[in-house]
Amino acid sequence: MSFEFRSLMFGILILLIIFLIIADISEVQEEIGNHGSTRKFYPQSFSPKSNRDDGTEVDASPAAETGGSTPPSLGTSSGPPTPEWIFNKTLSNSIRKNILKFLDAERDISILKGTLKPGDVVHYIFDRHSTVNVSESLYRLLPAVSPMKDQHHQRCAIVGNSGILLNSSCGGQIDAHDFIIRHETPQKKKTTPLCNLAPVEEFAGDVGRRTSLVTMNPSVVQRAFQDLSSELWRGRFLRRLRDLEGSVLWIPAFMAKGGEERVEWAVHLILQHALNVRTAFPSLRLLHAVRGYWLTNKVLIKRPTTGLLMYTMATRFCEEIHLYGFWPFPRDLRGNPVKYHYYDALSYEYTSHASPHTMPLEFSTLRALHSQGALRLHTGPCGADT
User: Fold this and answer.
1) 59 falls in which pLDDT band (50, 70, 90)?
2) Does this model's pTM top 0.85?
3) Can you tell me the distance from the alpha carbon of 97 to that of 87, in angstroms, rounded to the nearest whole number?
4) How far apart are CA 155 and CA 20, in angstroms?
């Protein structure tokens, strides 16, 4: 094959790649820029028939898509009357079935002992050029079987950290669920650290006390517990771990470089004090599988937030899913300021372009599923129609 022919084929290939990139960018821009009309959200696996009599449509307004100051209405008492939310079991089952084509949460929720062994080299998901060696202590905490093996729950709650939970009196309602997942919200840029292991005791009336599974990004050890730099901070971190008695601690240890030491510290404390905490380390394919499902269904996320990740996995083992503390807006439905987290004084400062996440777009998606009865979003005081 002549050099000229190879050069020609290479040039054609480059042009084709450039064309595909431009087409993809155009599609994303069209999706993000589609603010002028309302639309229903129907991923290909979703039933086009809403369970609500009024045929509620998704508001694709700038506030909903770009994190503006005006939040969308969910049919609470501050807006026009809407029919009571009704669980759409048919749609929920359809979503579960289609997600299973991309991932199986029972399997992908954690790497198992049979998958890795001490000394194995793992490439980080977000930094494929960097690697980490599986230590002996981390290997000891890899579960032999999935922590969600053969589990099925009727009603599950996924609890975020938004300040919308303050004064909600949702604690009792959250604790009444069969399985409760608590997770972090993405970190604000240039602010005080957030805490994945969000405190619950002092806010129990609003957020509940029970925990079945909680996420912990390795960076929380640095940002919320000062890298365990003193006995005081080690004690605080240990107390927080003890609070998780019997729960699953979900640690994304292989997502990004920089957290390996902090993972080791957490693992060491769990082993040293023989804590009754079951650990889980998500499979290396989980995040890409979740993103693939939503992209296939025309939800153009950059990287799924932990909230969307947890919802996607929960469809595998939960019949009916309720979401609390999901609110990517600086004000509530009545125009009152909403803190970024329920447990600190941070102000809201979300900028979609500065984040790997697209929280308002995700919220718009979840709101559409709420209107169709696939899940329920609670965005106001419990006891009201939220």
Assistant:
1) very low
2) no
3) 17
4) 43
Q: Following DSSP, what letter does each residue of 25-42 receive, concatenated? A: HHHHHHHHT--SS-B---
Cβ-contact 346, 191 below 8 angstroms? yes
Determine the CATH number of domain 62-111+145-230+279-378: 3.90.1480.20
Q: Which of 3-7, 46-50, 259-263, 315-319 has the highest mean pLDDT?
A: 315-319
Catalytic residues: 357
Q: Are 356 and 302 in contact (CB under 8 A)?
A: yes
3-state secondary structure of 354: helix
The DSSP H or E segment spanning 318 is strand 318-324
Do residues 286 and 120 touch, judged by C-beta distance below 8 A? no
Distance from C-alpha of 97 to C-alpha of 106, rounded to nearest angstrom: 14
- How far is Cα 45 from Cα 91, in angstroms, rounded to an integer? 9
Tell which phi-psi region holds residue 335, choosing left (phi > 0), alpha (psi between -120 and 50) or beta. Answer: left
Q: Which two tokens stand for residue 209?
A: 């006390």
Q: Of 112, 104, 117, 211, give the one whose Cα is nearest residue 156.
A: 211
The least confident of 52-61, 180-189, 308-317 is: 52-61
pLDDT band at 127 (very low <50, low <70, confident <90, very high): confident
- Helices 306-317 and 359-371: crossing angle in degrees, nearest 10, is 30
| Ranges of each domain in the chain | 1-32, 62-111+145-230+279-378
Q: Considering the chain, what percentage of its residues have pLDDT values greater than 90?
A: 48
Residue 11's alpha-carbon distances to 2, 109, 119, in angstroms, are: 14, 43, 43
Token pair for 51: 């369970």
Between CA 162 and CA 186 the distance in angstroms is: 11
Q: How many residues does the chain have?
A: 386
* pLDDT single digits (tens) 60-107: 333 333 344 455 554 433 333 346 899 999 999 999 999 999 999 999
The predicted-structure confidence for 277-291, as pLDDT tens digits, reads as follows 999 999 999 999 999
Q: Which amino acid is at 138?
A: L
CA dihedral 65, 67, 70, 76 (to 10 degrees): 70
- In the block, tokens 């639309």 appear at 39
